[in-house]
């Protein structure tokens, strides 16, 4: 019967399954019965292990089913069973992860948004503390730094109250529950009854805790997590005949569709990273939804999402233009599954769009749900639709901001030509470094893809963090990009343009304060900002043009205007 599963997959779906297993099989650790992490092989990954179990059951070669059952048991061993804790029902991201603090506060009694207020309060206490200490002693003479004292206070708080993303990942509930749903729906009749019972018990914990999280709004859910939350409450609501869960899912689905309908956009907008998750989960609504209402609602969202992608997509550069509401990388096949869906939609010859990356373990799920790209949109993914300026509004979600003030109205705008795209974001107040407010994609002389993006980071740290006090307002026209940067923070910030791509080297570029000459891209730069520092990472073929903000200098505004030379025919 399971053999029929792989046999009834299309050639393209089978290609995805085989490719993902070729990546995952060598990562399997038989002693731990888990998959090693794709990016950190000294650790294991419970989410990827769930995906591996599904892939094994689909393939069903000799020993695959028994291996899958062992993996599922081990993943469930790593589920938190702590009903009074905020992380109840989620799963350790890996067995190597430490245990979060426990027993120190009753989180369900706090009002929505308490995590925001707690963070703000700790920062305020830190400022007061260092101010008082400075009044009593010479901190420098004592070998103390103000920022180090504040960080020590944050570290102390993290040892008492479980810090989200550091000590646990709440989203592992939704990710693993979705994978379990597909496994149970497709393979329950073949699985040991005791394993099925244990999976059901695990899902009662996970889904119940996911609903508690949603009601508390302690950790707001971004678009991809909301879609998973709706699916699992719907699916397991019907599986367990839980009318409250069914009704909750229906209300959440209706609210999601209504919110989408305001501007025909999601809060995580124009994102290579999260659109891939969205499409996977909406495929689950379509294939595994138990009611016509859920399937139809999911279909409207899925088709609408494809329309959003088509609007900002360039089939020559084979990428979304930016700006990105949230993203890890500029490259569509770098940290994303969108290329996998495009391969399923466009057919043979597009296998290269499925390049193996850190999302490849999701491909068995994608193979199971397939793709539903509206036929009328297909030409926009095959041929350049003409040079154009395009824009769309959306309401972002700022995870770390005050409830009621965290859904800002943003405008994503882009100028899209055949061999170049420029993106600009306005209206965002997102504290997340994954928001990319200004982007450029282009081809070098050899037809290879190159990228420019504007980032920020606390001096000496990374860009993928939450930082307050920074606002970017960008605008775009043909051959022109402008960005206003407003900074209101007491820490040093590096505002920088990261440029990457093949052929990028000191010999192939010329960077001055007024002219950036890059491979096949040249622009005049007008900057109201400190003089830049140029940094080269030659191994990564990456260039940074860095502008340092120092609070003591008193100037909290920067402006950059890039006038690009027109494309040559």
Going across the biggest sheet, name each strand in turn.
Answer: 5-6-7-8-9-12-17-16
Indicate the mean pLDDT.
Answer: 93
Instruction: Note the gap between the termini.
Output: 57 Å
From the spread of the alpha carbons, the general shape counts as: globular
Class from helix and strand fractions: alpha+beta
From the alpha carbons, calculate the radius of gyration and give it in angstroms. Answer: 24 Å
Poorly predicted ranges: none
Number of helices: 14
Strand content: 15-25%
* Oligomeric organization of the protein chains: single chain
Per DSSP E runs of 2 or more residues, the count of β-strands stands at: 18
Question: Helix coverage percent of residues?
Answer: 25-40%
Main sheet: strands, sense, barrel? 8 strands, antiparallel
Task: Give me the secondary-structure topology.
Blueprint: H1 2-7, H2 11-24, E1 28-29, E2 34-35, H3 46-59, H4 64-77, H5 114-136, H6 146-158, H7 172-187, H8 193-216, H9 223-239, H10 243-263, H11 272-288, H12 292-311, E3 313-314, E4 319-320, H13 338-346, H14 363-369, E5 388-395, E6 409-416, E7 420-426, E8 438-443, E9 449-458, E10 470-477, E11 480-487, E12 493-500, E13 510-511, E14 515-518, E15 521-528, E16 533-537, E17 542-549, E18 557-564
Antiparallel strand pairs: 1-2, 3-4, 5-6, 6-7, 7-8, 8-9, 9-12, 10-11, 11-18, 12-17, 13-14, 14-15, 15-18, 16-17
Helix pairs in contact: 2-3, 2-14, 3-4, 3-7, 4-8, 5-6, 7-8, 7-9, 8-9, 9-10, 9-11, 10-12, 11-12
């Amino acid at each position: 019967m399971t053999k029929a599963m792989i046999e009834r997959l299309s050639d393209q779906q089978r290609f995805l399954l085989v490719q993902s297993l070729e990546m995952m099989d060598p990562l399997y650790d038989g002693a731990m019965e888990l998959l090693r992490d794709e990016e950190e092989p000294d650790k294991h990954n419970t989410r990827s292990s769930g995906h591996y179990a599904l892939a094994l059951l689909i393939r069903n070669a000799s020993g695959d089913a028994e291996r899958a059952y062992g993996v599922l048991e081990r993943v469930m061993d790593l589920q938190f069973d702590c009903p009074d804790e905020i992380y109840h029902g989620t799963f350790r991201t890996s067995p190597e992860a430490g245990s979060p603090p426990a027993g120190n506060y009753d989180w369900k009694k706090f009002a929505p948004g308490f995590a925001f207020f707690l963070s703000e309060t700790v920062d305020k206490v830190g400022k007061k503390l260092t101010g008082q200490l400075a009044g009593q002693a010479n901190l420098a003479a004592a070998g103390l730094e103000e920022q180090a004292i504040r960080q020590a206070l944050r570290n102390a708080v993290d040892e008492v109250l479980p810090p989200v993303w550091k000590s646990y990942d709440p989203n592992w509930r939704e990710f693993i529950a979705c994978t379990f749903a597909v496994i149970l729906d497709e393979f329950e009749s073949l699985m040991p009854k005791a394993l099925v019972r244990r999976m059901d018990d695990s899902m009662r914990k996970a889904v119940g805790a996911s609903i508690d999280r949603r009601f508390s709004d302690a950790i707001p859910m971004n678009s991809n997590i909301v879609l998973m939350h709706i699916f699992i409450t719907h699916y397991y609501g019907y599986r367990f005949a839980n009318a409250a869960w069914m009704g909750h899912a229906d209300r959440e689905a209706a609210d999601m569709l209504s919110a989408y309908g305001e501007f025909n956009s999601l809060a995580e907008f124009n994102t290579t990273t999260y659109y891939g998750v969205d499409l996977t989960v909406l495929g689950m609504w379509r294939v595994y939804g138990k009611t016509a209402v859920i399937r139809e609602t999911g279909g409207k969202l899925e088709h609408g999402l494809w329309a959003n992608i088509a609007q900002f997509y360039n089939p020559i550069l084979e990428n979304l233009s930016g700006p990105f509401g949230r993203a890890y990388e500029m490259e569509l096949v770098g940290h994303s599954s969108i290329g996998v869906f495009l391969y399923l939609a466009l057919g043979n010859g597009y296998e290269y769009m499925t390049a193996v990356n850190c999302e490849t373990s999701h491909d068995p799920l994608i193979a199971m749900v397939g793709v539903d790209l509206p036929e009328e949109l297909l030409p926009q993914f095959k041929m350049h639709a003409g040079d154009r300026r395009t824009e769309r509004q959306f309401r972002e979600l700022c995870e770390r901001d005050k409830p009621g003030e965290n859904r800002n109205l943003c405008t994503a705008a882009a100028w899209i030509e055949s061999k170049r795209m420029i993106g600009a974001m306005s209206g965002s107040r997102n504290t997340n470094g994954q928001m990319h407010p200004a982007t450029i994609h282009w081809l070098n002389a050899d037809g290879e893809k190159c990228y420019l993006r504007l980032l920020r980071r606390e001096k000496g740290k990374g860009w993928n963090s939450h930082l307050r006090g920074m606002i970017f307002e960008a605008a775009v026209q043909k051959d022109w990009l402008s960005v206003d940067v407003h900074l209101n923070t007491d820490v040093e910030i590096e505002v920088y343009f990261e440029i990457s791509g093949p052929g990028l080297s000191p010999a192939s570029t010329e960077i001055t304060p007024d002219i950036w000459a890059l491979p096949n891209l040249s622009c005049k730069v007008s900057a109201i900002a400190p003089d830049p520092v140029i940094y080269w990472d030659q191994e990564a073929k990456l260039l940074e043009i860095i502008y340092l903000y120092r609070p003591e200098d008193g100037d909290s505004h920067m402006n950059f205007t890039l006038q690009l030379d027109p494309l040559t025919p």
